[in-house]
Amino acid sequence: MNSRKVKGMKAKAQSTTNACPDDVEGKLEFAYYPGCSLSGTAVEYGISTKALCNRLGIKLEEIPEWICCGATPAHAIRTLFPLALGARNLALAAKLNKPLLTVCAACFNRLKWTAYELKHNREAREKISQLPGLLNGQTVEQLCELQIFHLLTVLRELYGVERLSEEVKYPLKGLKVACYYGCLLVRPPKVMQFDDPENPCIMDELILAVGAEVIDWAFKTECCGASLALSRSDLVAERVHRILSDAKSRGANIICVACPLCHVNLDVYQIDANTKFGYEHDMPIAYFTQLIAIALGIPPQELGLEKHMINPMKVLKNVLAQK
Amino acid sequence: MPRIGVFVCHCGVNIAGTVDVERVRDEFAKYPGVVYSVDYRYMCSDPGQNIIKDAIKEHRLTGVVVAACSPSMHEVTFRSACASAGLNPYLCEMANIREHCSWVHQDREAATKKAIELVRMAVEKVKRNEELFPIHIDVTKRALVIGGGIAGIQAALDIADAGYEVVLVEREPSIGGHMAQLSETFPTLDCSQCILTPKMVQVRQHPKIKLLTYSVVEEVNGYVGNFVVTIRKKARSVREELCTGCGICMQRCPARRDGIPSEFERGLTTRPAIYIPFPQAVPNVPVIDRKHCRYFLTGRCRVCEQVCPAKAIDYEQQDELITENVGAIIVATGYELISPSIYGEYGGGRFKDVIDGLQFERLLSASGPTGGKVIRPSDGKEAKVVAFIACVGSRDRAKGIPYCSKICCMYIAKHALLFKHRVHDGETYVFYMDIRAGGKGYDEFVRRAIEEEGACYIRGRVSRIYESNGKLIVCGMDTLSGKLVEVEADLVVLATAMRPADGFEELARKLRLPYDEYGFFSEAHPKLRPVETNTAGVFLAGACQAPKDIPESVAQASAAAAKVMSLFGMPTIEREPTIAEVNEMTCTGCFDCERVCPYNAIERKEIKDRRGNIIKVVASVNPGLCEGCGACAGTCRNKSITLKGFSDEQVFAQLVSASV
Fold it and tell me: In order of start, what are the domains of chain B with their CATH numbers?
């Protein structure tokens, strides 16, 4: 397989509709929304994000007193509560007068959903406007104007793929990467407006740009079982097994993710699947921020790779041998 | 002095049950201007009509009011009766005391009072009615058929066989439409080309049919009976009268290696730049595709000119504009299928082995790119397991296509059947939602595919298709057993939705034809007038009106032809005289009427003095187009337009008498 081409990536990945306005280009400054998991189970995602942005000159100002986005539980049991959580965070971000940036796919999904509801649902707008003090002096209209970015979009469209590849010090030789997008980044398509919901390519393009071989595979957005890991770990084990097997059968030696939940199920529950259900997987799962950072020359010790259950070092050692 | 006759109908108990009809009759026996007032049980019956006719003669009536049902029921009946008794039919009015009175009220006293009011209004109107005479329009007894598929071909043949000239315009290089691309047709499994080409040849040879292929309708002017149509005959770059159809040019054209996708083969193979779309094409004359021809692109080549034994190549040939005068137009522009990439999860457009129904027809066809072998477009290997997916796009509100495309259930069964005929050890899986097989022999045909050919029908949708190890994994659901299903297929055929053929908006604009939200042309009435449109003289046939199969298209084509022939059958067309009329003295030429007229019936007329100088330009109503809606009359600022039969005087008299 040609390492410079990804089979199936015929057309360019769809541009995300958050097109770069003039005041952001050249001035990559964002109101940073880390989300809870970046200080918990996905602490290495947060560390590597900061390291990468620092290296690229992308300035992150953490939103003061940000609160939980609600993730899955909030919208599963309530209707106004998740809206209020999202609106509060958007209001706090809007106060900083910078577009919002996040890396957690769940936070991204919830914030975008909140913005979508406020824009299109009159009842939601009215209910939120009636909550005094929630919006911290901002109006709902100001919230709707706030741009919400995922780091993937910022890298591909605002920073630029070409520019990124120019910064590469250690091309990711020997890495055959299967990019896994999960569900929250692309679904529901009407709300997320993020790449092609059936065959997204944004992560593939970035990983390709830093010198890795990118595998085209069938399960980019396949369900991993999500929170069933807690109640039906057998189902999650089977799902994870399918995903990992497909990637392996197509020649991948590492999977790249952009979401803490994807990481947990594919990495932590990989062990679970092996021990409890007899599978024999040995596929390292890395965050795209970690892979790109390594390619740019940031030492792996500074990227939290030791936090992963499956050690990615055995695959990365060829890259690092270039030093 | 008016001498009005009032005829009150009981309509059995429909009216008399609620309205005191005798009281109504008595009320008008002594009404000023009324000289005769009578009631009868069924005024529309023969004896009833005779009462009217006799009264007209005996009492020398100058006007007739029939208090009965709705004019849409019997106005024609009573007006004909008056005419046969020697009274101008437009001196007869109806008062609707049934739908507007007895059928909607229960209070006898109030209903009777209302009925009296309604009759009074009618009487006051009739006193001011004037004699009107039908308008006669000349008819050019030639027809234009737009579209040379099976519907257009059938319509053209029917009209031509009746002795009238037909101009048949087709934008592709050959007639035949999509039917020419089919392998066999359901439910008889006739070879499609075998039943179609005789008709195509008939068209070619018919002395009354003027066939214009590779031609488009450029402009349409005029009105029913008198259309003036400009047709652009695009330059083929080949002289039709010299070409013998030998095909040497096609074989030697160097652009055949340039990868030009063949439209007829639906992209499954390529074609040269000079090409005849298929061997049985009518006319059997090639066309140079100037967008891909090396000579037209780079100035170098001219191989076809060198090898042509008949010296028929003409690179200098220009488009020709042809003007045709016709009396009626049939639109038979057909359909297209939506893109198979409509569901990203099915991989249409991404995976080479996910194709649509017409592409599968080309694979099945003996004269197709694979000689009738069902092989995978990706690697050329024979397909053993084929999955068919119904309702791809159709019946999906989320995709903006809520309608059913009607033909897919049948052609899927046909495909499964034909595939098994070729590949005896093949496997077919059909993912369906419902089976729609309502035609003659249709359900039996589907059962045959299931019972005799072992097609495996799975009731459920497919959630996604992906490639794995060179196969297509089709993930679906069997809702009848409640289980998830995965089929490892070599080839997947998507039954994509039918939509109107490209260019419908432009054609609709030229013909002033309305179309629905999907682009299908609108019929005048979906139940009772399916081949007429609201534009007089323009008719519809085939899939351009709605998804349908070949037998229905043929039936509609003959129906449209019959409508055209009834138009041509009379020496002139008679139109209702209740149309608008402009008072040229008072008209100021503001043309607000032109702006509001939905039928484009207002023309501009120059008023000249004796020396030929233009004094003013006034509005003028085209009696061929005006439908008498009255929008102009309501709009005119200084009351220069009146509607004949509904003048201000008449209408105000009604209003005033109602408030008495």
Answer: 4-127 (3.40.50), 142-228+321-334+501-569 (3.50.50.60), 248-307 (no CATH), 338-497 (3.50.50.60), 580-644 (3.30.70.3270)
